[in-house]
Amino acid sequence: MILIRLIILSLFIFNTTLADTIYNLIKIPNLEIYETKTENKLRYLYAKQPFTIGLDNNINCYDSKKTLLDKKYQIIKKNLDKYDQEFLKKINLKYIVLCEDLSISNINTAGIPDNMMKTLILDIKFNEKYFERVIHHEVFHIINDSFKELFSEKIWSSFNIKNFNYAKCSTCTDKLGLETYVNTNGFFSEYSQSTASEDMAEVFSHLMIGVDKVKVDPILKKKIEFIKNNLFKIDKNFIL
Amino acid sequence: MIKKIKASRSEKIILIFIITLALFSFGSFFYIKNKCLFIKNYDPKKITFDNPKNIAILNVPCGNVIIELYPEISPNAVKRFETLVRSKSYDNVAFHRVIKDVIVQAGDLEFGKKETIDYGKIGTGKSGLGTISSEINTPFNFDKGSVGLARTQRYNTEDSQFFIILRDEPLYETEYTPIGKVIYGLEALKKIKYLDKSEYVLRPDFINSLRMLVD
After folding, report:
1. A79, A138 contact by CB (below 8 A)
2. B164 interfacial to chain A (CB closer than 8 Å)
């Protein structure tokens, strides 16, 4: 018994201070650099071990195999390369964290944006069909969080038909479908109908990916103009 | 009559061996205690610099650390640093945050002075000159020996605290304001006192002096 105690005690005594630069910068443990030499200065990090963060330790994500990481990195980078360094600086986005099975309060999610920490966590295992679109969807949340005054939910909601009401939060509704409507009715997808900010993010992400096959209705046209005008206010050179 | 016993040859060898061992142990006790034993102390007077007015000499327990400042990269930060150096504000200030082979940080003028050190507040002190804006837009390679101004979690909160990195830190670019690089004497910084279990050092080492080469 004494021996066991001594062994346990020695673990504490000889547990040295590890300098985790990434943790000091963005407060997420167990990350390593994947790529930093990018044209738009985004820094890509990956989980070398699972991590848990959040006020109540309610955000979890896991490490993934290198093959999947390498494959998904190419897709993510291709999409995020659409944003130049100046724009990313304005919206306060610098770190992209790649991990898998990302969840918040046990609800799986494609990404978690944190403009204060300049970080976007992405689930690289998220549904392949919508993967590229959700990257831009999450980027919009960073944009929105950084320019709250521009993206007024009151104005946005006024574009919808009179009796339409959004849910109180994106997880307090069962409108979670991401399939793009062929015939829109003010919304690009079912998920657009969850909250105003998710609706904006859906419009933005569809614009980034391209909406050639979609028949855009007058309400959606107003929404698209709203997004475009406000992005122009943030960065005159931003191309949609 | 006492009969004299002559030591055998092998006994003599053992005796000599024991005496040698004792001398070696005694001598090494003093040598090993000297942590600066193999650290070269650079004399700035014997070195020719391209820009002598941008050279600062940081004297630490194991000798001189010679820093070249880069006013063209971070003019305001270098100006602040020089102001504090010229007023000798950094003398006797603690290296309060040290991680072995990673970083040394000093410059808390309020709570880090040798005479009035406050372990409860060290690292949070101010210079009294106010904060300055971060200068992070110019590309800078934060490799081993880079010197930067420390800040809080927010930008534009740089004041008097500075750090020197002992390994490459590529993620520091566009995060921290660079002010210069150590060009001689980095080894002396590796001997600054650190703790195994904490970044913050109890009974830390202090800056002996920090001066500009040209007054």
Report:
1. no
2. no
Q: What is the pLDDT of residues B139-169, one digit of tens each?
A: 999 999 999 999 998 899 999 999 999 999 9
| Distance separating alpha carbons of residues A189 and B157, to the nearest angstrom | 44
Cα→Cα distances A143→A114, B31, B212, Å: 10, 60, 45
Write the ipTM.
Answer: 0.74
With CB atoms and an 8 Å threshold, state whether B103 touches A19.
yes
Q: Whole-model pTM?
A: 0.81
Pairing of strands B103-106, B146-149: unpaired
pLDDT, residue A12, reads 44
CB contact under 8 A, A25 and B175: yes
Whole-angstrom distance, CA of residue B41 vs CA of residue B34: 14
Cβ-based contacts of B199 with chain A (< 8 Å): 17, 19
In chain A the domains, ranked by start, together with CATH numbers, are 17-143 (3.40.30), 147-240 (no CATH)
Q: What's the pLDDT at B30?
A: 63
The total number of residues shown for chain B amounts to: 215
Q: Let me know the angle formed at the C-alpha of A176 by A170 and A179, rounded to the nearest 5 degrees.
A: 135
